[in-house]
Write a structure and sequence with these properties.
The chain is built from 41 helices and twelve strands. The chain is mainly α. Among the domains are: about 120 residues, Arc Repressor Mutant, subunit A; about 80 residues, Serine Threonine Protein Phosphatase 5, Tetratricopeptide repeat, CATH 1.25.40; about 150 residues, P-loop containing nucleotide triphosphate hydrolases (Rossmann fold), CATH 3.40.50.300; about 80 residues; about 160 residues, Arc Repressor Mutant, subunit A (Orthogonal Bundle). Strand 1 and strand 2 form a beta hairpin. Helix 13 packs across helix 14. The radius of gyration is 35 Å and the shape is globular. The two termini are about 30 Å apart. Belongs to the AfsR/DnrI/RedD regulatory family. It holds the Pfam family TPR_12. InterPro entries: AfsR-DnrI-RedD_regulator, BTAD, OmpR/PhoB-type_DNA-bd, P-loop_NTPase, Sig_transdc_resp-reg_C-effctor, TPR-like_helical_dom_sf, TPR_rpt, WH-like_DNA-bd_sf.
């Protein structure tokens, strides 16, 4: 099959991949599930853990990762001939690189989103096209909990689109032609009042008023019987209008609704509250809002929306009002404002229909001409603002649904929305421009206090002001509360206010007025959380360390990683935590104080204790894994199994271990402090043990850094070259490749400039080792050759032998086995002549590798066993285990499976004794492969 045809990935029906309309074989059901799990997030990286959870749920098989990799490999092969779709390995997981237009689900979502911004005829056209993509139940042929949940979600989304299509058709005057379809839909959804209303209106327009009234009676009886409630206001109003034979129910639609304002009046609403004072900083945010306005005026085809998100009390409303007043002249037809009370401490969120009614009043609609139906009111509102240059400022919004009825359809309008939640629905569905509002800088915080309290008072207590700014952490509401208190008590020193804030924390920022109380503001944000989110919010506050990553958070909560991701995302969207560029989550200090209080008041001692035990266990077990990678020869220590719900992080290699330890060093120290505070003395000791190698290397690096700094002031060039060489080697050992090369090249330049062949030789050898660690054998070989040439001229046979072995090893890695064998044989002769059994064993091991990879399997076995004898004599069990692992491969190549099994079982036992889990797992896979028909 060629790769140039039209490609489609289908999820809205049976999971399939089609090329020019012809399906290709995707393999077993779980393999199709892997494809679906990638396709729902097409072009985005899906982690291995998330993929495994989507395929197997919370109970994956023992070898889930290996099986998953196998499925992904087969999918790559299946899609190899398809140019438009590829499964790609990315940092952190896998991605289906195809483009959203290739996947029917994403085409459906795009059409549905576009339908929300058009007129009714456009809505009908787009929704009919979107619904035409469905070919049965979504994800047919894929089983599992994730598939079932996703199938339910997509089914509901399809229903919503069908409901929206019916509404649009009804607004266009349809009726009788919809009865049959709506009849089937009400049978499937007997308690859905929206469907019931659509069906009643369609029946009425078909001349079947009695049937419409009878259907209302049936719905009413069923609601009372099953839910104990009457139909909602919309259904009741429609029932009354049918009873009254309201002619508007059958009126033919017009191109545009008439503007029903008082005769001869031109209403220009000016609803913006007063501009805030003082207003400081926010220059970048104001510039971005300005840019949005300019872009909208030039290119927009729909309404321009700016969605401003941030924590409660961070200054979103002040920013929006300040910008709105600066640009009021850009909106000559008026400015509308409403506080939707989404997170007000003392009230419930405003129903958007109430806000629409308020806007209609502001636009001059006479009460007697106000439509009764909320949908009609929204349509009238959009008609009145169509073509107008107006600003709508929708403050304190809960979510996208909260503001959807208030969005005009006209591209002449500008909408500014503030919310504590990141309104992703507006961003994806309405093209809104997201703007996140963060804390003030120290300079801006000082200016705010100065503007409120005066320069003299600020300058009189600079030390107290510095501490005050630090305690408030740039949080505008906190600064404003303190400034207000100081302003109303002019004789109270700022030092006294600072001491109160230092000692009593959030109590100093409380007030009887909930709008001037930080605890009240944060409490209203917390009330909007689910129970699971609120528990996680409290646990994050008491977790050790300045921030937290997903793996540690999953252990802290005890939830599966995918579920933890969803909860963290919800808290991030609620602006209670923030995610940095490295994907780590942190809390503002004041929010952490509040969350800590809730953790101790709302979470049981057992819950907190278990969470801390899990997260300390996460850091301990992952640090242990890192240490085993840094020092595989170090005797292991017994940790015992982690607590249930703990998910230690796997680390693939030495660089990953160092990177993890570098990032998490403060968390490990904090975890050790937490363990000590809870009298978990065994964990304290084990954390110290796990960090020993890392601390040793960090100390070594610090030592050689100090030596290099000192050597730069000494006259001896050899000393300077040596110091930079050893510092470069220390960086290389820590996986810091760029720093290592920088110091090594500096050492080489010094040695060459001062004609010091000894330092040149040692530095070339160090560069060879550094490039080997980076995986560049050609660079490593080049430097090893230069080291060899120099050691020969210096008449240093022991160093010459080491360099010969290095040249041989890198030549072998590059496939030049003749050169490799020649150099390793020469190295072996020198090692034996100078009685260096450790280096001799290492070279024999290299010769075994060369012989095996060049097809001389019997000779490879001979060399490996010679090396093994020496390693055992020297007591080097770690190298012995590696050689046992290596010698199994030529045995297997010769068909001697039993001998291969014997040496691999011996290697496996040594790996387990040394705690080398990754090596043990790899050896197990080799043993499993021996049992395959082809012998692996």
């Amino acid at each position: 099959m060629g790769g140039s045809g039209e490609v489609e990935v289908r999820l809205l029906g049976e999971v399939a991949v089609l090329v020019d309309g012809c399906g290709i074989e995707l393999g077993p059901a779980r393999q199709r599930c892997v494809l679906a799990a990638l396709a729902v997030d097409v072009d985005r990286v899906v982690s291995v853990n998330v993929l495994a959870e989507r395929v197997w749920g919370d109970h994956p098989p023992l070898r889930a990762r290996a099986t998953l990799v196998n499925y992904l490999s087969r999918l790559r092969q299946v899609l190899a001939a398809v140019d438009a779709a590829h499964v790609v390995r990315r940092s952190g997981g896998y991605s289906l690189e195809a483009g959203q237009a290739v996947v029917d689900l994403h085409r459906f979502d795009d059409l549905y989103a576009r339908a929300r911004t058009g007129d009714d005829r456009q809505i009908v056209a787009l929704l009919e096209k979107a619904l035409g993509l469905w070919r049965g139940e979504a994800l047919t042929g894929v089983d599992g909990d994730w598939a079932a949940t996703e199938r339910d979600r997509l089914h509901q989304r399809r229903l919503n689109a069908e409901h929206d299509l019916a509404d649009a058709l009804l607004r266009l005057g349809h009726g009788e032609d919809l009865v049959a379809g709506l009849s089937a839909r009400v049978a499937d959804n007997p308690l859905d009042e929206r469907v019931a209303g659509q069906y009643m209106l369609a029946l009425y327009r078909a001349g079947r008023a009695a049937d419409a009234l009878e259907h209302y009676r049936q719905v009413q009886e069923r609601l009372v019987e099953e839910l104990g409630t009457d139909p909602g206001e919309a259904a009741q109003q429609l029932h009354l209008r049918i009873l009254a034979a309201d002619p508007a129910l059958t009126a033919a639609p017009t191109a545009s609704a008439p503007v029903t304002v008082a005769a001869g009046s031109v209403v220009v609403p000016r609803q913006l509250p007063a501009a805030p004072t003082p207003f400081v900083g926010r220059h970048d945010e104001l510039d971005r809002l300005d840019a949005t306005l300019r872009t909208g005026s030039d290119t927009a085809t729909t309404v321009v929306i700016s969605a401003i998100a941030g924590a409660g009390g961070i200054g979103k409303t002040w920013l929006a009002l300040h910008w709105a007043h600066r640009h009021a002249d850009r909106f000559p037809d008026g400015q509308l404002f409403v506080d939707l009370r989404g997170f007000s401490p003392d009230s419930t969120p405003m129903d958007p229909t109430v806000a629409v009614r308020g806007f209609l009043d502001a636009l001059g609609v006479e009460p007697g001409r106000m439509p009764v139906d909320p949908h009609a009111q929204t349509a009238l509102f959009r008609s009145l603002v169509a073509g107008k240059r107006m600003l709508l400022l929708l403050d304190n919004t809960v979510d996208t649904a909260h503001v959807a009825p208030l969005l005009p359809g006209s591209d002449t309008c500008t909408v500014m929305i503030t919310s504590r939640n990141r309104l992703s629905g507006l961003i994806t569905g309405h093209g809104a421009h997201h703007l996140s509002v963060d804390i003030l800088t120290d300079t801006e915080a000082r200016r705010l206090l100065t503007d409120r309290l005066g320069t003299a008072r600020i300058d009189a207590e600079t030390a107290a002001v510095d501490e005050l700014i630090g305690l408030c952490g740039g949080f505008p509401l906190a600064l404003s509360i303190i400034a207000g208190r100081a302003h109303s008590h002019p004789r109270l020193s700022l030092a006294a206010l600072t001491a109160e804030l230092r000692d009593s924390a959030l109590d100093a920022l409380d007030d009887t007025d909930p709008t001037a109380s930080l605890p009240a503001v944060l409490s209203s944000s917390r009330r909007a959380l689910t129970r699971e989110q609120a528990q996680t919010f409290g646990l994050l506050a008491i977790a050790p360390g300045p921030d937290i990553g997903l793996p540690a958070a999953a252990s802290l909560t005890g939830l599966p990683p995918a579920r933890t991701t969803a909860v963290l995302r919800a808290l991030d969207q609620a602006s209670l935590i923030s995610q940095d560029t490295d994907g780590r989550y942190r809390m503002h200090d004041l929010i952490r104080r509040y969350a800590t209080d809730t953790a101790h008041s709302d979470l049981s001692d057992d819950m907190r204790k278990a969470a801390l035990e899990r997260v300390v266990g996460f850091y301990l077990h992952t640090a242990h894994t890192a240490d085993r990678l840094l020092a595989p020869h170090r005797p292991p220590t017994l940790l015992g199994p982690p607590a249930p719900g703990t998910h230690p992080q796997p680390l693939p290699d030495h660089p990953a271990a160092l990177a993890w330890l570098d990032t998490h060093h403060p968390h490990l120290l904090a975890a050790q402090h937490t363990a000590a505070a809870h009298h978990r003395h065994h964990a304290v000791r084990l954390l110290d043990w796990a960090l020993h190698t890392f601390h040793q290397r960090r100390d070594e690096l610090a030592v050689w850094q100090a030596a290099a700094d000192a050597a730069d002031h000494l006259p001896d060039p050899a000393t300077r070259a040596q110091a930079h060489r050893l510092l470069g080697h220390a960086h290389a050992e820590l996986g810091r490749h760029e720093q290592a090369l920088g110091h090594l090249h500096q050492a080489l330049a010094l040695a060459e400039h001062h004609h010091d062949p000894t330092q040149q030789a040692h530095t070339h050898h160090a560069l060879s080792c550094a490039w080997e660690q980076q995986g560049d054998d050609q660079q490593a070989l080049d430097h090893a050759r230069q080291a060899l040439d120099l050691f020969r001229t210096l008449d240093q046979p022991v160093r010459e032998a080491i360099a010969l072995n290095a040249v041989g090893w890198h030549a072998a890695r590059l496939g030049d086995y003749d050169t490799a064998r020649e150099h390793c044989q020469a190295a072996l002769t020198l090692h034996r002549h100078h009685h260096d059994p450790g280096s001799e064993a290492n070279t024999l091991d290299r010769l075994g590798y060369i012989d095996h990879h060049s097809g001389h399997h019997h000779q490879a076995i001979h060399h490996y066993h010679q090396a093994l004898t020496l390693f055992r004599t020297l007591g080097n069990t770690s190298q012995a285990a590696d050689t046992l692992d290596s010698v199994g491969h030529p045995h297997a190549a010769l068909g001697d499976r039993e001998q291969a099994r014997a040496v691999w079982l011996e290697a496996l036992e040594l790996y387990r004794q040394e705690g080398r889990d990754d090596d043990a797992e790899r050896t197990l896979r080799q043993l499993d492969a021996l049992d395959q028909p082809d012998g692996g």
